[in-house]
Specification:
14% helix, 8 strands, mainly beta, disordered C terminus, Immunoglobulin-like, 133 residues
């Protein structure tokens, strides 16, 4: 009785593994923490995307959760084992906490909509106090 169950489990695992063939996305970090930065400071950061699959990975869109978070991504296919960079620019004109997301949409079989985040605090230059964002 146990042997057929183990055999079924092994077949299921091999079917699931076969289903994971294709482009697969991996990002070097899920969150970029700016820490505390000054109002008007450079709000740029980058996420390195690696194709850990066995077919070309194509990023079709990068979208910020608001107008203050602007991502830029290359839509050139990423060969298996190769990398690309998604750059993000956060507008630091407004003071207060940063907690925004960027959705990287691709043909990845593991995560077609990969969400990464930026966080931190923009501190006002005049009095050092941060107003809510």
């Amino acid at each position: 009785m146990m042997r057929p169950l183990l055999l079924s489990f092994a077949v299921l695992c091999s079917v699931l593994a076969a289903a994971q063939k294709g482009p697969m996305i991996q990002v070097d970090k899920d969150v970029h923490d700016y820490g505390t930065i000054a109002q008007g400071a450079n709000g740029e950061c980058a996420f390195v995307v690696t194709n850990i699959g066995d077919a070309p990975l194509i990023i079709t869109n990068c979208k910020g959760s608001c107008g203050c978070t602007v991502p830029k991504c290359d839509t050139t296919p990423i060969a298996p084992g190769q990398k690309s960079t998604v750059s993000v620019r956060y507008d630091t004109k407004k003071t207060g906490p940063i907690n925004k997301s960027v959705t990287i949409t691709s043909n990845a079989v593991n995560e077609p909509d990969k969400i990464v985040r930026v966080k931190g605090m923009v501190q006002g230059q005049a009095d050092g106090a941060a107003a809510p964002h």
